[in-house]
Amino acid sequence: MNPARDRLKLSGIVIWTGERGRQQARLVAGMYRAAAGVPCERSAVIAGGLPGADKAASLDRSGVDRSRYLTVSIGAVLDQMAAAGLIPGTDGLSPLTRAGQVHAEAQHLAKRILLRALIDGRNVILDISLASWRAAEAWTYALRFADYTLTAVFADMDADEAVRRAGEARRRGEEEFRRGHGHGGRVIPAAAIRALASPVAAAAGNRIRWAVGARSAGVIGGTVGTGAFPGSAVITMLTSYREGLLSLDDLSLEFRARRWPRVPDVCPPELEPAREAIDDPEPYVPGSFDDVLLAYDLGWLSDADYDVLAVAADGLPGS
User: Fold this and answer.
1) Helix/strand/coil (H/E/C) assignment for every residue in 267-285
2) Secondary structure class of 147 (helix, strand, coil)
3) For residue range 220-241, what is the model confidence (pLDDT) as tens digits?
C-alpha cells in the first residue's frame, strides 16, 4: 500500500483512489453495516464537548436512548482505521500514538458514514467537539434537508480537566497495547485542548441553536419522503449513469468540464491552534465530489468506475 500514490487533490479536499480508496470504502461499509439494527426515524443528536467530557452521561440525563442511534465519532473511526492497518506503524509505537497523521482522513471518513445514514434516515448521534462552525453549519443544513429532527446536548468541562482526562485515556490505551490489547492511546496536545476551550470555539454551538427543535426543511417545503436529499446535479448525473442513460465516457467528460465547489477545511483559521483536538466531521457540500463518494459508498460505482471519475474530476484546470 502506498497512500501517497493513491491520493489526488480536488477543490480543497484530498481524494483517495487505488488500494487506499478501496480500504476506506470497506471501513465505511463495515462501520455502517454494524448499525443495521438502528431505527430509521430521522432523529439526530449533536453531542458536543471537549476531549474527555462525559457525553454518554449527558445524553443519558437528556433521555437519549443511545441504543437507538448510530454514534459517529472521530475516535471510533481512528480506532477502526488502526484495526484495518490504515495508520502507518514504525518503531514499535502503537497505531493510535500516530493518529495525528490521519486525523484529517478520519474526519473525511466520518462524513461518509454520516451521509450513508442520512440517505436511509437512520438515527445518528454526532459525538463531536462542536468547535468548527464550518462543520456545524454544513451538518445542520444537511440534517434539516434530510428531514431530521435535531437535538443538541453539551457536556461541560473546564480545559484543565479535559487535559487531565485526555492524558489518562492515552496512558490507559498504551498500557493495554503493551498487554496485547487494543491499538494504543491517542495523543491530543494540551495546548490544542486549551485552544479548543476558548470563546472562539463557542461560535459553532451558537450556529446550531436556531435549528434545534425546528421543523425540517422537508416539512416546510412539502417534500418529506420524496427522497430529495441530496438532490444535486452530480447525483442526477450519477443516477443517469446507474440507469444506463450515460456512459462512463460521457460521465467522465461531464466531470472534466464541471467546476467543482470547494469543500472547506474543518478547521477555521481562527482555530488553527486547536486543530489537533477538533474532532468534528469534514463539512458536507452538496454538488461537490462528496456526492461521488456517496454514490461509491452506496454501491452505484465499481472500484474502477470510481477511480476513473476521480481522475477525471481532478484533471480540471483551476478546480
Assistant:
1) CCHHHHHHHHHCCCCCCCC
2) coil
3) 444 444 446 788 899 999 999 9
